[in-house]
Specification:
405 residues, alpha+beta, 6-stranded mixed sheet, 5-stranded antiparallel sheet, 16 helices, 41% helix
Length: 405
Amino acid sequence: MPETATWTEPDARGVCICDLDVGAKSTLRGKRLCRSFSATPVTLGSWPTAWQELLADWIKASSPKRKWSTLLTAAGNRRVHLADELLDALLRGGWVEVEEWRKSGRWLPVWVNFLDLAALRHHFGLPDKDALAETFRVESLHTLQDSRLAHAQQSLDAFSPNVALRRLALLRKLDVWSIEQRFGTRRDFSLFARGTTKAISTAEWEWLERYLDPVEWGIEKHTPALWLRAPIVLLREDLHLDLSLVDDCIALTPGTLNSLTGIKGRIGCWRLLENRTSFERAARRYGNQDLVVWLPGYAPTWWRQSVTRFLTLCPAPALIACDPDPAGIEIALQAARIWDEAGLSWQPWGMDVETLSGLPNCQPLSQNDREQLQRLLQQPLPVSLQVLADWMLIHAKKGEQEGAI
């Protein structure tokens, strides 16, 4: 608006007019601004509910200046008359400035500028996006302790401040969950993070799954359980459970395992298998003499704690079978720490050059595979795993356990 523009005295509605580029009067064309300069905008609480509902829809967008045609579209055919009434009420109440164009001898609204959008949004309980953006910027300066969350945190820049803040708070709770070595179901984590068991939406779970595996953080969709088969009897005071009755495999929850007071029977060894199909085959084949357990990849905290507890009641050496690939070596080493800390022996099973080279199908190494192998070779490895890692690097091949066991 030109600095020299002047406003008329208020009309009967209390609205002032400022002409903009009126042009030749004979053409009956021009533009003008309309607004009320009342000292205090009219309060909204006494307005009809239908007006308030439509206004709430209009101000969800962050831009204070909107095309009238856009606002009409938001109103829809059923609320066109309400839109006209609401615009007039907003204008007279001092909430908006309206730019009108003269067409066919009539002044028609073209642009609507909300003069205090923050106050309107506050009235309807809508967030102040600028304030939220600043809050998110400040909150983002506090680094999460677990570096595995960095990628998920970086993704938050693509979301609105309101969504980003909620998801950042979720990551902070996940950080604490990890530090405290908790485990449980998704509902357990939701209760821990937000106070109720169903407070994390499907969209939020899907977003988390794009950047991390909840199972690796000790968060299961359902109650976690250790899948196994063994020729032993589980004891809890005067109760007992004979696993010899199981012909394939059975699942025992961490709570059940933690409540055990003893075990009767002998096993030859523990057999840990990463691939689920291989585990089920091995359980049927070896479970009448050994304790065969499914190793769910990078084992979550609850799994490691359950196996550690079980191992104190049923100590024996372990055979650990994972995919003959870089990740498989790392997964095997992670599980093997339980036996190292217990002072018991372990050795890889089906993770050797002969097994890998004899597979009917192998896959090529990716660049990430190569980097992972190079990191592994910088630490002490059992001889067989070191030879396997060297062979994979030289031949650029990896395999899957299912083809070997």
